[in-house]
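Sequence, please.
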């Protein structure tokens, strides 16, 4: 019994000695894999820390002086709704990447931005700034948004006096009158929305609106309306503002519908009074 036990104990010890290197090899491989993974993570983190600040600094360095001023205005007045770097905030304001300086020109100078609240359509109101400060700040904000994400830009000069009023009238009736009415007085759309009147719109605002298509308005790119055709439409609209209705009462310039209604009502009233007068005489 003693001999067999001794032999069995010797075999067991030999098996332990043979298994020990395998366990040590497996543990070494696991340790090596863990060390390599940690080294890779440290290396990736180090590269990110080294490269990311340099990229941000390079981006910041590319901004012009006007765009830097615009960024300061943006961070002070717009970041709450449009988010850091104009990426937008869900439920508050859309992203401004790609809208261009033309959109900023329209929204800021017409007082639509900053908006008081979210609604079906943001109405025109008194601008946040006034006088020369309004245009300077709009230009700076527009330059910042332009350099940040690109988009449509206004031409350097917009001279409506170079427009063809007759051609502008034809283009307006085809492209604009269905929403803004023939008199450019505006009109109702669906879901509480509307096409605003153009009585207070400036040349730059109208040009910017055609380029950017704010809210329900379609975008009229240069392939749809050339720069000259845009000037023609602006000249026509501005010409209507100076028209003094030499033919008489303009009736809101809504066209033949209101004119026919007015004639009908006036005619019926006149006929009723004439009938009563004749009946009284007889």
């Amino acid at each position: 019994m003693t001999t067999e036990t001794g032999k069995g104990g010797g075999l067991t010890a030999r098996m332990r000695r043979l298994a020990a290197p395998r366990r040590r090899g497996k543990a070494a491989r696991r340790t090596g894999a863990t060390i390599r993974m940690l080294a890779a993570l440290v290396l990736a983190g180090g590269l990110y820390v080294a490269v990311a600040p340099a990229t941000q600094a390079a981006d910041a360095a590319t901004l012009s002086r006007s765009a830097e001023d615009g960024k300061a205005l943006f961070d002070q007045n717009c970041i709450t709704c449009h988010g850091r770097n104009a990426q937008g905030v869900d439920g508050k304001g859309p992203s401004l990447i790609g809208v261009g300086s033309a959109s900023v020109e329209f929204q800021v100078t017409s007082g639509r931005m900053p908006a008081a609240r979210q609604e079906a359509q943001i109405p025109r109101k008194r601008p946040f700034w006034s006088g020369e400060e309004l245009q300077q700040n709009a230009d700076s904000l527009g330059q910042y948004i332009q350099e940040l994400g690109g988009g449509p830009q206004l031409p350097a000069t917009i001279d409506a006096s170079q427009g063809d009023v007759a051609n502008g009238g034809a283009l307006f009736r085809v492209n604009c009158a269905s929403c803004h009415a023939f008199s450019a007085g505006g009109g109702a759309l669906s879901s509480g929305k509307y096409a605003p009147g153009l009585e207070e719109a400036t040349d730059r605002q109208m040009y910017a609106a055609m380029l950017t298509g704010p809210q329900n308005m379609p975008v009229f790119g240069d392939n749809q309306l050339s720069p000259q055709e845009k000037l023609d439409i602006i000249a026509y609209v501005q010409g209507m503002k100076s028209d003094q209705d030499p033919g008489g009462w303009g009736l809101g310039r809504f066209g033949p519908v209101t004119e026919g209604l007015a004639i009908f009502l006036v005619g019926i009233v006149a006929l009723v009074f004439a009938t009563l007068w004749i009946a009284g005489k007889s």
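The CA atoms of residues 184 and 198 lie 6 Å apart.
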